[in-house]
Amino acid sequence: MKTILKTTITIKEICNGFVYNELEGKGLFGLSGKLTIQPEYQRNYIYAEENREAGVIESVLKEYPIGLIYFNKVGKDTFEVLDGQQRVTSLGRFITDKFAIKDENGMPQIFGNMAKDKQNKILETKLLIYECEGTESQIKEWFKTINIAGVPLNNQELLNAVYSGPFVTKAKEEFSNSQNANIQKWSAYVSGSANRQKFLECALDWVSKGNIGDYMSKHRKDKNIDELKKYFNTVIDWISSVFTDVESEMCGLEWGRLYEEHHTKKFNPAKVSAEVRKLYGDFFVKDKKGIFEYILGGNNDTKLLNIRIFDEPTKRAVYEKQTREAETKKKSNCSLCAVGHDANKDKIWSFGEMEADHVSAWSKGGATSTKNCEMLCRTHNRAKGNR
Ligand SMILES: [Zn+2]
After folding, report:
1. Could you write out the three-class secondary structure of 254-292?
2. What residues sit around ligand 1, an ion, with C-beta below 5 angstroms?
3. How far, in Å, from the CA of 380 to the mean position of ligand 1?
4. What is the arithmetic mean of pLDDT over 213-218?
5. 228: left (phi over 0), alpha (psi -120 to 50) or beta
6. What angle do CA 2, 4, 7 make, to 5 degrees?
7. Residue 45 pLDDT more than 70?
8. pLDDT at 53
9. Ligand 1: distance of its center to the CA of 362 in Å?
10. Which helix (H) or strand (E) holds 244?
11. How many whole angstroms separate alpha carbon 259 and alpha carbon 234?
């Protein structure tokens, strides 16, 4: 990889021909059109807080360094901002009067109303710019190294950088655009923000069954995202047809996997809805997020619900009663040991060696009260399974 440090490029030159897209919140071009500020692989403009934007300008006025900026040389005389896009956008936005900073008296002041000498001070400030030329894998490595300042790129943002091209462009139009009216509907099931590529990541994860990098590499040159879009919408439609009520715990579940595992089964939405409501109202269900997979799997795997167990006083009381009775009968205080024929048939287990079991399993309607509690030796309790 080749790098050249440039120390003579001024803010004026960088911001020459600066174009800002208000709708997308992106700085687009600079350096008289030779510089792409927001290339494909860059995240959306995250430097949104005003004080951070103002901080860039104040640093320049105080002659503080604003850090290294990296350009990626993409053509003979054309560049993309590899790192520093947010700072360059802040500079461009200020010079085009898009926001104000506070003057010495705390009054907001836009660039156009500043004294000429101050304006010139900003315009003539030279930035430290590394011009780099490298291969795809070098750039990927590099991204990891240079993202030490500001908001670090997350995994999907890195992948978008590495596999930039028509496919990523289209995919971002669909899944990373917070203006897309569908985002709100999708956010019932997908967590995270569109800007930080969480919806795109989810769509790719589902269609690729978890192999996002491979999928992006294979489809990099595709001119359309039909498969990605179709699969994502199919999963979303499936969720909303099986579960007619939207619960907050549905957000961020592994819906792609659940779809693959269960979409060929038939579900009665009215019945499912009644089951969901029943489980939501059940005090013993600790894990509400598990309700959906539990129902999809045919109400068998109670582990998903993390059922509340008996409290300590209940277990103690039941243990004392069982043990007293067992001692009278000269049998084991574990009822399953007592009916057996091995050495444990008259063994009195200590409290610590026993576990509580529902006499009538929770999944079959058993309550978690003293009456429904039985202490069993650990071996027998674990063998019983369904709790
Ligand atoms: Zn036993």
Report:
1. CHHHHHHHHCCCCCCHHHHHHHHHHHHCCCCCCCHHHHH
2. 334, 336-337, 377, 380
3. 5
4. 91
5. alpha
6. 165
7. no
8. 84
9. 20
10. none
11. 9
